[in-house]
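Hi again,

Forgot to attach this to my earlier email, sorry! This is the prediction with 6-O-phosphono-beta-D-fructofuranose bound. I've pasted everything inline since the attachment limit keeps bouncing my files.
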Amino acid sequence: MKIGVLCSGGDAPGMNPCIRAIVRAAGERGDEVVGIRHGYQGLIDGEFWQGDNIPKEISIRAVSGLTSKGGTILNSSRSTDFMTAEGQAKAIANLEKHKIDALIPIGGNGTLTGALSLTKLWNGQVIGIPGTIDNDLLGTDYTIGFMTAMQTAVEAIDKLRDTAGSHDMMFIVEVMGRHCGDLALQTAIAGGCEIVAVPEIPTSVDQIIASLNHFKKLGKRSMIMIVAEGDDLGGAVEMLNALKNAGSPYEMRVVVLGHVQRGGSPVPSDRILATKLGCFAVDALHQGETGKMAGEIAGKMVLTPFEDVIVDHRQVTPEMIELLQIVAS
Ligand code: F6P
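C-alpha coordinates for the complex follow:
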Protein backbone atom coordinates (compact mmCIF):
# COMPACT_ATOMS: atom_id res chain seq x y z
CA MET A 1 0.00 0.00 0.00
CA LYS A 2 1.25 3.53 -0.75
CA ILE A 3 0.19 5.88 2.04
CA GLY A 4 0.31 9.68 1.83
CA VAL A 5 0.57 11.67 5.06
CA LEU A 6 0.07 15.39 5.60
CA CYS A 7 -0.36 17.90 8.42
CA SER A 8 -2.89 20.70 7.98
CA GLY A 9 -4.11 23.70 9.99
CA GLY A 10 -2.31 24.90 13.12
CA ASP A 11 0.72 22.78 13.99
CA ALA A 12 0.62 20.87 17.26
CA PRO A 13 3.41 19.35 19.36
CA GLY A 14 3.22 15.61 18.70
CA MET A 15 2.64 15.76 14.95
CA ASN A 16 6.25 14.63 14.38
CA PRO A 17 6.07 11.55 16.62
CA CYS A 18 2.82 10.74 14.83
CA ILE A 19 4.53 10.88 11.43
CA ARG A 20 7.28 8.65 12.83
CA ALA A 21 4.72 6.12 14.08
CA ILE A 22 2.94 6.05 10.72
CA VAL A 23 6.20 5.49 8.85
CA ARG A 24 7.37 2.77 11.24
CA ALA A 25 4.00 0.97 11.37
CA ALA A 26 3.69 1.14 7.60
CA GLY A 27 7.26 -0.10 7.20
CA GLU A 28 6.45 -3.15 9.33
CA ARG A 29 3.77 -4.07 6.82
CA GLY A 30 5.83 -3.36 3.74
CA ASP A 31 3.94 -0.16 2.85
CA GLU A 32 5.52 2.96 1.39
CA VAL A 33 4.86 6.36 2.97
CA VAL A 34 4.93 9.56 0.96
CA GLY A 35 5.05 12.82 2.88
CA ILE A 36 3.04 15.71 1.47
CA ARG A 37 4.32 19.12 2.44
CA HIS A 38 2.17 22.12 3.49
CA GLY A 39 -1.03 20.16 3.99
CA TYR A 40 -3.80 20.22 1.40
CA GLN A 41 -2.07 23.10 -0.38
CA GLY A 42 0.90 20.81 -1.00
CA LEU A 43 -1.47 18.20 -2.35
CA ILE A 44 -2.69 20.75 -4.89
CA ASP A 45 0.78 22.09 -5.69
CA GLY A 46 2.34 18.61 -5.93
CA GLU A 47 4.72 18.96 -2.98
CA PHE A 48 5.24 15.25 -2.63
CA TRP A 49 8.20 15.08 -0.22
CA GLN A 50 10.74 16.04 -2.78
CA GLY A 51 13.55 18.50 -2.54
CA ASP A 52 17.26 18.60 -1.88
CA ASN A 53 18.55 15.09 -1.38
CA ILE A 54 15.25 13.95 0.07
CA PRO A 55 13.98 10.63 -1.25
CA LYS A 56 10.39 10.47 -2.47
CA GLU A 57 9.36 7.95 0.16
CA ILE A 58 9.98 8.76 3.82
CA SER A 59 12.26 5.94 4.91
CA ILE A 60 12.20 4.25 8.29
CA ARG A 61 15.50 5.98 9.16
CA ALA A 62 14.41 9.43 7.97
CA VAL A 63 12.05 9.68 10.95
CA SER A 64 14.68 8.89 13.58
CA GLY A 65 14.69 11.31 16.49
CA LEU A 66 11.27 12.73 15.71
CA THR A 67 9.68 11.78 19.05
CA SER A 68 11.05 14.85 20.78
CA LYS A 69 10.69 17.37 17.94
CA GLY A 70 8.00 20.05 18.05
CA GLY A 71 6.26 21.42 14.94
CA THR A 72 5.97 19.21 11.88
CA ILE A 73 8.74 18.19 9.48
CA LEU A 74 6.08 18.16 6.74
CA ASN A 75 5.12 21.82 7.34
CA SER A 76 1.49 22.81 7.53
CA SER A 77 -0.90 25.36 6.03
CA ARG A 78 -4.51 26.47 5.95
CA SER A 79 -5.49 26.00 2.31
CA THR A 80 -8.34 28.08 0.95
CA ASP A 81 -7.70 26.57 -2.51
CA PHE A 82 -8.67 23.15 -1.19
CA MET A 83 -12.10 24.53 -0.32
CA THR A 84 -12.82 24.96 -4.04
CA ALA A 85 -13.90 22.25 -6.48
CA GLU A 86 -10.97 23.17 -8.73
CA GLY A 87 -8.45 22.79 -5.90
CA GLN A 88 -9.91 19.45 -4.86
CA ALA A 89 -9.78 18.19 -8.46
CA LYS A 90 -6.09 19.16 -8.70
CA ALA A 91 -5.36 17.42 -5.38
CA ILE A 92 -7.04 14.24 -6.56
CA ALA A 93 -5.19 14.33 -9.89
CA ASN A 94 -1.92 14.52 -7.95
CA LEU A 95 -2.89 11.66 -5.65
CA GLU A 96 -3.61 9.58 -8.73
CA LYS A 97 -0.43 10.67 -10.49
CA HIS A 98 1.64 9.56 -7.49
CA LYS A 99 -0.38 6.34 -7.22
CA ILE A 100 -1.33 7.01 -3.60
CA ASP A 101 -3.74 4.34 -2.24
CA ALA A 102 -4.55 5.97 1.07
CA LEU A 103 -4.15 9.29 2.87
CA ILE A 104 -3.65 10.11 6.55
CA PRO A 105 -4.32 13.83 7.23
CA ILE A 106 -3.32 15.04 10.71
CA GLY A 107 -5.01 18.18 12.04
CA GLY A 108 -8.10 19.76 13.54
CA ASN A 109 -11.67 20.44 12.49
CA GLY A 110 -10.78 22.11 9.17
CA THR A 111 -8.44 19.24 8.28
CA LEU A 112 -11.13 16.65 8.92
CA THR A 113 -13.69 18.68 6.96
CA GLY A 114 -11.23 18.58 4.04
CA ALA A 115 -10.78 14.84 4.61
CA LEU A 116 -14.53 14.33 4.34
CA SER A 117 -14.66 16.18 0.99
CA LEU A 118 -11.82 14.02 -0.27
CA THR A 119 -13.53 10.82 0.82
CA LYS A 120 -16.56 11.76 -1.25
CA LEU A 121 -14.57 12.48 -4.42
CA TRP A 122 -11.58 10.14 -4.38
CA ASN A 123 -11.44 6.35 -4.57
CA GLY A 124 -8.55 6.02 -2.10
CA GLN A 125 -8.94 5.42 1.64
CA VAL A 126 -8.75 8.32 4.12
CA ILE A 127 -8.18 7.97 7.87
CA GLY A 128 -7.73 11.23 9.83
CA ILE A 129 -5.77 11.83 13.03
CA PRO A 130 -6.73 14.54 15.57
CA GLY A 131 -3.83 16.98 15.90
CA THR A 132 -4.61 20.37 17.47
CA ILE A 133 -3.76 22.07 20.75
CA ASP A 134 -7.42 23.09 21.12
CA ASN A 135 -8.80 19.66 22.17
CA ASP A 136 -12.01 20.72 20.47
CA LEU A 137 -12.74 17.54 18.51
CA LEU A 138 -15.45 14.99 19.13
CA GLY A 139 -14.42 11.34 18.71
CA THR A 140 -11.40 11.38 21.03
CA ASP A 141 -10.75 12.26 24.67
CA TYR A 142 -7.61 14.18 23.74
CA THR A 143 -6.10 15.61 20.59
CA ILE A 144 -2.37 15.47 19.87
CA GLY A 145 -0.71 18.64 21.20
CA PHE A 146 -3.19 19.60 23.91
CA MET A 147 -1.16 18.30 26.85
CA THR A 148 2.02 20.05 25.69
CA ALA A 149 0.19 23.34 25.12
CA MET A 150 -1.30 23.08 28.61
CA GLN A 151 2.15 22.36 30.07
CA THR A 152 3.51 25.49 28.34
CA ALA A 153 0.63 27.62 29.62
CA VAL A 154 0.91 26.30 33.18
CA GLU A 155 4.67 26.95 33.26
CA ALA A 156 3.95 30.57 32.25
CA ILE A 157 1.23 30.91 34.88
CA ASP A 158 3.49 29.56 37.63
CA LYS A 159 5.92 32.35 36.78
CA LEU A 160 3.22 35.02 36.58
CA ARG A 161 1.93 33.99 40.01
CA ASP A 162 5.26 35.03 41.53
CA THR A 163 4.94 38.52 40.09
CA ALA A 164 1.22 38.74 40.86
CA GLY A 165 2.04 37.90 44.49
CA SER A 166 4.95 40.33 44.72
CA HIS A 167 2.84 43.22 43.44
CA ASP A 168 -0.62 42.36 44.81
CA MET A 169 -2.15 42.33 41.37
CA MET A 170 -4.16 40.35 38.89
CA PHE A 171 -3.03 38.83 35.59
CA ILE A 172 -5.50 38.19 32.81
CA VAL A 173 -3.88 35.46 30.70
CA GLU A 174 -5.20 34.69 27.22
CA VAL A 175 -4.77 31.15 25.93
CA MET A 176 -5.72 29.77 22.51
CA GLY A 177 -9.10 28.19 21.80
CA ARG A 178 -11.48 29.75 19.29
CA HIS A 179 -14.49 27.50 19.80
CA CYS A 180 -13.65 25.38 22.79
CA GLY A 181 -12.58 26.44 26.28
CA ASP A 182 -10.98 23.15 27.26
CA LEU A 183 -7.42 24.49 27.07
CA ALA A 184 -8.45 27.54 29.12
CA LEU A 185 -10.38 25.58 31.74
CA GLN A 186 -7.92 22.74 32.25
CA THR A 187 -5.04 25.24 32.34
CA ALA A 188 -6.93 27.26 34.96
CA ILE A 189 -7.41 24.18 37.14
CA ALA A 190 -3.82 22.95 36.74
CA GLY A 191 -2.44 26.47 37.25
CA GLY A 192 -4.50 27.12 40.41
CA CYS A 193 -6.23 30.10 38.80
CA GLU A 194 -9.31 31.77 40.23
CA ILE A 195 -11.50 32.63 37.23
CA VAL A 196 -11.93 31.41 33.68
CA ALA A 197 -13.81 32.78 30.66
CA VAL A 198 -14.62 30.30 27.88
CA PRO A 199 -16.45 30.53 24.53
CA GLU A 200 -19.17 28.10 25.62
CA ILE A 201 -20.50 30.29 28.44
CA PRO A 202 -21.66 33.91 27.93
CA THR A 203 -19.40 36.22 29.93
CA SER A 204 -21.01 38.48 32.52
CA VAL A 205 -18.72 41.33 33.56
CA ASP A 206 -20.99 42.04 36.57
CA GLN A 207 -20.63 38.47 37.74
CA ILE A 208 -16.83 38.57 37.40
CA ILE A 209 -16.70 41.87 39.35
CA ALA A 210 -18.84 40.29 42.08
CA SER A 211 -16.41 37.33 42.24
CA LEU A 212 -13.40 39.66 42.38
CA ASN A 213 -14.97 41.64 45.24
CA HIS A 214 -15.70 38.37 47.01
CA PHE A 215 -12.09 37.19 46.59
CA LYS A 216 -10.83 40.56 47.84
CA LYS A 217 -12.99 40.19 50.96
CA LEU A 218 -11.58 36.70 51.51
CA GLY A 219 -8.16 38.31 51.69
CA LYS A 220 -6.81 37.24 48.29
CA ARG A 221 -4.29 39.88 47.30
CA SER A 222 -3.37 38.54 43.90
CA MET A 223 -5.33 36.74 41.23
CA ILE A 224 -4.98 34.94 37.91
CA MET A 225 -7.80 34.81 35.38
CA ILE A 226 -7.63 32.70 32.20
CA VAL A 227 -9.47 33.89 29.10
CA ALA A 228 -9.88 31.72 26.01
CA GLU A 229 -9.25 33.71 22.82
CA GLY A 230 -12.76 32.80 21.63
CA ASP A 231 -14.51 34.23 24.71
CA ASP A 232 -17.48 36.40 23.66
CA LEU A 233 -15.93 39.61 25.02
CA GLY A 234 -13.13 39.19 22.45
CA GLY A 235 -10.06 38.16 24.48
CA ALA A 236 -7.88 39.30 27.38
CA VAL A 237 -7.40 42.95 26.34
CA GLU A 238 -11.14 43.46 25.98
CA MET A 239 -11.64 41.70 29.31
CA LEU A 240 -9.20 44.05 31.05
CA ASN A 241 -10.92 47.13 29.62
CA ALA A 242 -14.37 45.88 30.57
CA LEU A 243 -13.30 45.01 34.13
CA LYS A 244 -11.48 48.33 34.53
CA ASN A 245 -14.57 50.24 33.44
CA ALA A 246 -16.75 48.20 35.77
CA GLY A 247 -14.54 49.00 38.79
CA SER A 248 -12.24 45.97 39.28
CA PRO A 249 -10.84 45.93 42.83
CA TYR A 250 -7.47 44.64 41.51
CA GLU A 251 -4.74 46.31 39.52
CA MET A 252 -4.56 44.28 36.31
CA ARG A 253 -2.13 43.30 33.54
CA VAL A 254 -2.67 41.27 30.37
CA VAL A 255 -0.49 38.44 29.04
CA VAL A 256 -1.36 36.85 25.68
CA LEU A 257 0.41 33.48 25.36
CA GLY A 258 -0.50 33.10 21.68
CA HIS A 259 1.54 30.85 19.41
CA VAL A 260 4.06 30.04 22.16
CA GLN A 261 1.55 27.33 23.07
CA ARG A 262 1.92 25.62 19.69
CA GLY A 263 5.68 25.10 19.91
CA GLY A 264 8.07 23.01 21.96
CA SER A 265 9.01 19.42 22.46
CA PRO A 266 5.90 17.26 22.98
CA VAL A 267 5.33 16.01 26.54
CA PRO A 268 5.36 12.19 26.99
CA SER A 269 1.56 11.85 26.98
CA ASP A 270 1.38 13.60 23.59
CA ARG A 271 4.18 11.41 22.23
CA ILE A 272 2.37 8.29 23.39
CA LEU A 273 -1.03 9.41 22.04
CA ALA A 274 0.59 10.35 18.72
CA THR A 275 2.29 6.97 18.50
CA LYS A 276 -0.89 5.05 19.32
CA LEU A 277 -2.97 7.01 16.82
CA GLY A 278 -0.37 6.78 14.05
CA CYS A 279 -0.09 2.98 14.37
CA PHE A 280 -3.86 2.60 14.75
CA ALA A 281 -4.51 4.65 11.60
CA VAL A 282 -2.22 2.38 9.54
CA ASP A 283 -3.94 -0.63 11.04
CA ALA A 284 -7.35 0.82 10.16
CA LEU A 285 -6.29 1.29 6.54
CA HIS A 286 -5.29 -2.38 6.41
CA GLN A 287 -8.71 -3.31 7.79
CA GLY A 288 -10.18 -1.53 4.75
CA GLU A 289 -11.53 1.42 6.78
CA THR A 290 -12.03 4.87 5.28
CA GLY A 291 -13.84 8.16 5.98
CA LYS A 292 -13.10 8.02 9.70
CA MET A 293 -10.97 9.68 12.37
CA ALA A 294 -8.81 7.63 14.69
CA GLY A 295 -9.24 8.53 18.35
CA GLU A 296 -8.87 7.24 21.88
CA ILE A 297 -11.85 7.21 24.22
CA ALA A 298 -11.58 5.84 27.77
CA GLY A 299 -8.39 4.00 26.87
CA LYS A 300 -9.84 2.33 23.76
CA MET A 301 -8.81 3.08 20.19
CA VAL A 302 -11.90 4.05 18.18
CA LEU A 303 -12.86 5.16 14.69
CA THR A 304 -15.51 7.86 14.23
CA PRO A 305 -16.96 8.87 10.84
CA PHE A 306 -15.77 12.33 9.75
CA GLU A 307 -19.39 13.54 9.59
CA ASP A 308 -19.83 12.81 13.32
CA VAL A 309 -16.56 14.51 14.25
CA ILE A 310 -17.06 17.79 12.40
CA VAL A 311 -20.74 18.23 13.23
CA ASP A 312 -19.86 20.16 16.42
CA HIS A 313 -17.02 21.25 18.70
CA ARG A 314 -16.30 19.59 22.02
CA GLN A 315 -17.78 21.61 24.90
CA VAL A 316 -16.35 22.13 28.37
CA THR A 317 -18.31 20.24 31.01
CA PRO A 318 -20.18 21.91 33.91
CA GLU A 319 -18.41 19.45 36.26
CA MET A 320 -15.00 20.88 35.34
CA ILE A 321 -16.24 24.47 35.75
CA GLU A 322 -17.57 23.52 39.17
CA LEU A 323 -14.23 21.93 40.07
CA LEU A 324 -12.46 25.22 39.38
CA GLN A 325 -15.03 27.15 41.41
CA ILE A 326 -14.63 24.84 44.43
CA VAL A 327 -10.86 25.05 44.57
CA ALA A 328 -10.62 28.75 43.72
CA SER A 329 -12.65 29.91 46.70
O1 F6P B 1 -6.36 25.54 15.67
C1 F6P B 1 -5.26 25.77 16.45
C2 F6P B 1 -5.08 27.23 16.73
O2 F6P B 1 -3.86 27.34 17.41
C3 F6P B 1 -6.21 27.90 17.50
O3 F6P B 1 -6.13 27.70 18.89
C4 F6P B 1 -6.04 29.34 17.12
O4 F6P B 1 -7.25 30.03 17.20
C5 F6P B 1 -5.57 29.26 15.71
O5 F6P B 1 -4.98 28.00 15.54
C6 F6P B 1 -4.60 30.34 15.28
O6 F6P B 1 -4.36 30.16 13.93
P1 F6P B 1 -3.24 30.92 13.10
O7 F6P B 1 -1.94 30.32 13.48
O8 F6P B 1 -3.60 30.61 11.69
O9 F6P B 1 -3.33 32.34 13.46
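The first strand starts at residue 2 and ends at 7. The radius of gyration is 22 Å.

That should be everything now.

G.
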